[in-house]
User: Fold this.
Amino acid sequence: MADKDRDIAPLTTEEDALLDGLFAAAKDDPAMAPTADFMARVLADAEAAMPEPAVIAAPVKAAPVPWMAKLVALLGGWQSVSGLAAATVAGVWIGVAAGPAMLQSDIGTSLIVSSDETYLSALDASFAYLGN
Amino acid sequence: MPYDQQNDIPDEALLVLYANGDAGAARTLTLRLTPRVFGHAYRMLGNQADAEDVAQEALIRLWKVAPDWRQGEAKVTTWLYRVVANLATDRLRRARGVALDAVAEPQDDAMSAADRMQDRARQDALQNALATLPDRQRQAVVLRHIEGLGNPEIAEVMDISVEAVESLTARGKRTLAKALAGQREALGYTDG
Assistant:
C-alpha cells in the first residue's frame, strides 16, 4: 500500500517485503487461534443467553359436540328440556289416570265422533264444545 | 436449521436466527466469529488470558444485543471489532506492560523444529514490534494487514475518516519497519 502521508518516509522495498512476509505469516499463526476449551466456553455463553424459540400455537380445534347436546341446545337448553319432559310425563299420567272415563265423557265422545265440528275442535280449542 | 446449511448465511441473518432461538445459528456464529475476535484481541493485548477475557466479553455483548440488532446498520464483525478495541484499550489503560512473551508454542507437526523456531521467532518479533505502537496505530495496522479489512470498514470500526486510517497504518508500518530493521537476518530475511 502506498503511503499517502507526505510526512512519513515511504518504506523501502526490503522493508515492505519484511512486513508483508510477517503479516502473511501472522494471518495463519496458530498461536492466535482460540483453544477448544475457550470455544466451548463461548458456545456455552451463546446457548445460555439465547432467547427461547418462539412457539407458534396450533389453532384450537373445537371438540366434537354430542348429538344429544346439539338436540338439547336446539330445544333451548336443559331448563327448557326439563320443563318439556315434565309436561310430557304429566300428560301421560293424566291419560292413564282418567282411563275409560275420559272416552265415555262428552269430551271423549266428541273426539271420536266424525263431524265437521270435531275436526274444527281439533284445530282450535274454541270449537271444542261445538259438537255437543 | 442444520449447521452445514448455515455456512453461506451472512452473520447478520444468523444473528436473527440466533435471536429466534436457533441453536445451530449459535454454533455457526461461535465457530465463525470467535477466532476473529480472539485473534484481534490477542494482537491488541499480547497475551492469551487477557485476549480470552476480552473476546468472551465482546461475544457475550453480541449475544445480549442480538434480539435488538438492527439489520442494515452495521456489520456484525465491524461492531465486534469496535467492542474488542474498546475493551482492549480500557484494559491496556488499566494495566500497562502486559506480558508479551506469553505466546503458546505452535502445534504444526509438518514443520521442522528449526522452521517452527524461526516462524515463532518471526511472530514474536512482530508481536513485540506491534506492542511498541500507540494503541490506535496498532489497531489500524492489525485490522488492515492481518485481519484484512478495507480502509472504509476500519474507518467505521475506529470512528475516524478513511484518510486518518491511511495515516495511522502508514505511520504504524513505518514504526514497525524501524523496530524490525535490525532483526532481518536473525529472522531469516536475507534476500533483496
